[in-house]
Amino acid sequence: MRICVLGAGVVGVATAYYLAGDGHEVTVVDGAAAAGLETSFANGGQLSYSYVAPLADPSVIPKLPTWLIRADSPLRFVPRVEPQQWWWLLRFLRACTLHASREATIQLLALGFYSRALVHTIVREEKIAFDYVRNGKLVLYRSAQGLQGAKRQMAFQATLGAEQEALSGAACLDIEPALAPLAGVLAGGIYTPSEDAGDCHKFTRALAGIAESRGVVFRYGTRAISLITQGRRIAALRTDRGEIEADAFVVAAGIGSLEILRAVGIRAPLYPINGYSLTLPVGPQHKPPRISITDTHNKVVYAPLGDRLRIAGMADVTGLSSGPDPKRLALLTRQARETFPEGGDYANAATWFGRRPATPTSKPVLGATAYGNLWLNIGQGSLGFTLACGSAKLVVDAIAGRPPAISPAGFAWPAR
Ligand SMILES: Cc1cc2nc3c(=O)[nH]c(=O)nc-3n(C[C@H](O)[C@H](O)[C@H](O)COP(=O)(O)OP(=O)(O)OC[C@H]3O[C@@H](n4cnc5c(N)ncnc54)[C@H](O)[C@@H]3O)c2cc1C
Q: Does the beta carbon of 12 sit less than 6 angstroms from any atom of ligand 1?
């Protein structure tokens, strides 16, 4: 089949890679000059297959006033006169039940574990270089209450096959000596040895290169304008460089999917959650963490990427077209300096702003639509690098009519 994939972020590129493996004639369209230049560019680098629990959870309800009022809260909400924001928020609140949160955790963990197996296969078979490490992840808690809640989640996840271990504050320092500046502050942590890290941009570029060598055509610098419908089918994609006809279309355009889909009557459950990252050069004089770290107090993640340290954080629900806020970046920098003062060369940090394509349930939307030949691969939110391979394989299996390796039911459109 001739298949047109819209979007060359990590999700669209993984889709094209698996489609090429099935022998399809694939064209990928992206407005940027190369693959992986939008949200897949400088994210946290975490392949955190066991940390996929949704943001929507009963415990967030009491925190909402803080998100509204405090400018230094790691999560920030600024109300806008935007129907999509309120529509999204209502669905988010509806998902804040124990039942919904547990259901989503079960489905996302299955997708996370499936993605882990697929990433490992790619690493083994394709030999791509993306500063990949199987270094494990330590999630830190500064309060006894926070640690207790994490232990409950760990016990639940153990019933689903996650292998994690609770550590005391002192044991956290033993496992990661670079945490010395936090001695005395830590209540403890949850350690997951099976987590990986890597550079999402390098991964996306390398996988796009492999897909290209297998016949995939990448049309960069090509802005998609609309899908042209013919009854309940899509006939072509209209772009600023002409129309592209195909037998099937996959929308994987990150937050850009919202507009493209709206024009054909599909309301995607997407809203941007903005965040920032810093990338520090690391020299022999620095003391970066060796394993991936999540500091839950500030909601900041740290990943060693070769001779760099990637630091990412902030989750800002501040508007469909909101841009970077220098105060939030300054806050992230201050928090990172306090946690790892010698983690790297802060004076020469590269800074970045990105927009997570988030759904209210934190679950991506994968698979068929009401149009017979239009498929979705959207909404990976804060876990797009982690979930890209599993999401793409599920969509490609659905297009092929092949039985999937895990149940895709929880990810179907329209999203519940
Ligand atoms: C601060 C931050 C930290 C993060 N940390 C992590 C992490 O540690 N681990 C993890 O798993 N995930 C993380 N994420 C999430 C992850 O980066 C995203 O989920 C992922 O990059 C989304 O990939 P995507 O391919 O869907 O979107 P994108 O990478 O945004 O790709 C979409 C592509 O579509 C193109 N496009 C859009 N509209 C159009 C159009 N009309 N015409 C043509 N092209 C179009 C864009 O140019 C873009 O290339 C983080 C995100 C942020 C912001």
A: yes
The CA 383 to ligand 1 mean position distance, Å, reads: 10
For the CA of 46, the closest atom of ligand 1 is 8
If you take atom 25 of ligand 1, which residue's CA is the nearest one?
A: 9
In a domain, 387, yes or no: yes
Give the β-pairing of 292-295 and 224-230.
Answer: unpaired
Q: Is ligand 1 within 6 A of the CB of residue 112?
A: no
Considering the domain boundaries, does residue 59 fall inside one?
Answer: no
Over residues 262-318, the pLDDT tens digits come to 999 999 999 999 999 999 999 999 999 999 999 999 999 999 999 999 999 999 999
23: number of Cβ within 10 Å: 11
Distances (CA, A) of 309 to 25, 38, 357: 39, 20, 24
What is the reported pTM?
0.98
> Over the stretch 393-404, which tens digit does the pLDDT of each residue have?
999 999 999 999
Residue 8 lies in a domain: yes
Establish if 160 belongs to a structural domain.
no
Please tell me the predicted confidence (pLDDT) of residue 66.
Answer: 87
| CA max distance for the chain | 65
Cα of 231 to ligand 1 centre, how many Å?
Answer: 31
Task: State the distance from the centre of ligand 1 to the C-alpha of 315, rounded, in angstroms.
Answer: 14
